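Field reference: sequence -> structure
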Amino acid sequence: MPTPPLSVQLYTVREALEADLDGTIDRLASIGYTRVEPYNFAANTAALSAALERNGIAAPSGHAPLLDGDRDLIFEAARTLGIGTVIEPMVHPERWTTEEAVEQTAQALNEVAALGAEYGITVGYHNHWWEVETDFGGRTGLEVLAGALDPAVVLEVDTYWVAVGGQDPAGLLVKLGDRVRFIHLKDGALDKDNTSQVAVGAGRMDVPSVLAAAGSVEVGVVELDDSAGDLFEALEASLHYLQADSRQAGA
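Structure field:
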């Protein structure tokens, strides 16, 4: 299938953002990104909103600590920024050791989603590797979570961390089905060393198989948690790779 609409997780360029928010957003726009996925966006809503608006950049999704943060503040900020889906970025590994704990997390997300609906905002969850390292009768923790979530709650599958956790990203996307509305697209050595991450298409990830399995995905979010190389160069190379893949798929 063609590559879905692309975004970039702003956590990738967090140091640049802290030093110069306007210049960083301008640079992402000059590279060719028309969508971003902000993080901790309730802390700088006005400045971020102005920078995005100036560059014609949309923010369809964003990360925020929904389970232990000020939810009303987060949803108000999301509404200001036009963020339609707010995603809980992580729940600590110790909460993925039993099915009961996973189901408790699902219930907490369901409750937050009910509040989000009052603001017209969807709630989602983003995984790391520990949610798929666990095995509950042949199901990963992420699958257990999905089974206990309200239908209104969506998933953002970080396909790289799925691979690091020992699962096949494409296969898991198929299992999770249309619950998955966003994916993180990243590449690297498939280990837990963030500095080994590289531009999408330049590492060990089978990116074409991921894209082929991403039938329900609304947005593909490019991210590097870190890198030994230049992050902006990696983001630009990722965009070119994914856009070329999309053109070939549509040819």
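Note: The mean pLDDT is 96.
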